[in-house]
Design the sequence.
């Protein structure tokens, strides 16, 4: 018997609104959602599924340039829990998000960055 994971369901409006609040309160000071618009950190438009350290016009830390990982929802969850523990050497000055904030933020980033 083969077990198959159900397809990911789209986030509902309440979850997206919560994710938007998390972005606005925790991320917006350093990251934009506009493609190519970087602040202290790179634009997060299209981050879900993108390879780490890959935006051509942003200067990443060596740790992110060498990471060889894709920003899957699982990788983002681990990174947003404790960035320095997940990827030592990143320049991101951030102490992590609680569990109840991470998934709504990831769902929101996936939603706003979808083609």
Sequence:
């Amino acid at each position: 018997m083969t077990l198959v994971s159900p397809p990911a369901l789209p986030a509902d409006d309440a979850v997206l609104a919560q994710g938007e609040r998390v972005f606005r309160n925790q991320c917006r000071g350093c990251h934009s959602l506009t493609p190519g618009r970087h602040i202290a950190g790179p634009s997060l438009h299209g981050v879900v599924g993108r390879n780490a350290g890959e935006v051509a016009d942003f200067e990443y830390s060596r740790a992110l340039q060498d990471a060889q990982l894709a920003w899957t929802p699982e990788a983002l969850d681990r990174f947003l829990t404790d960035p320095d523990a997940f990827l030592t050497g990143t320049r991101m000055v951030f102490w992590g998000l609680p569990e109840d904030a991470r998934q709504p933020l990831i769902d929101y980033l996936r939603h706003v960055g979808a083609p």
